[in-house]
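Quarterly update from the structural biology core.
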Amino acid sequence: GTFAWPCQRCNGHGMCPTPLTCSCSNNWQGEFCDRCATGFYGAACDTYCDDFITCGGRGTCNSVGQCVMIRSIGAVSDSQTATNEYSALFTVTVSGSYKLAVRYGVCTYSPQSPDACPGAIHISGSPFSLSAFPAGTNAFQSEVYGAGVSDATSGQAATFFIKARDIFGNAKTKGGDAFRVLLAGTKPAKADAIDLGAGLYSVSYLIEIAGLYPVFVRFGDAVVGSNDPNVSPYTVKVWAGPARGETSTTFGLVTTAVAGIDFKW
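Predicted structure, tokenized:
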């Protein structure tokens, strides 16, 4: 195993494998082990709560690790026309398939009940199937990945990919976005983003001069993966390719020599 010892740096919630690093206990995280790990709550981070495991998918964990029932969406009647019609407003931030239950009556939460709202009665057709689709593409949430976004060889094509996501981090399921790609550096070059469908794009480029090239992937005026339109989080290192006779050169005393004497060139 890894040798470590207690230290003040970790706030008593971990060990120090080196004087400047912390290896946190299971319930803690952070550089100084000063925050609860995902799913743990409370001052001692000793309360576990998960929306699906602990709350059975019928509630959410609050700040102290207690299940809070997902409340019914408030419905407001049209009192002026007295048509007995109701309106409801809700927001979905995670794309996917849902069941929308519309009930009337008193809903009493019970941890032991498999019913999310025991006591209330479904209206005709409830629960309804609901499909939530991703919102518009967001530059900061979209991601760039692949070998070609960090390494390339001069004279050889390199490739990386762009995955479009919305402001909530949902992966886009359709293409059609206009991404622009520029490799700045010793010899700037543009590259085209090819739409592969389902929100995925491929980018191929070929650089002939070795060096460092910041990669700017833009969506509109924003840079993918960065809040600053002038800063790119991606830099490609283009390595020199294999030696080639037609591009290699010589220098020095290559036209004259004296018999019996070595010359370097």
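Residues 1-37 form one domain.
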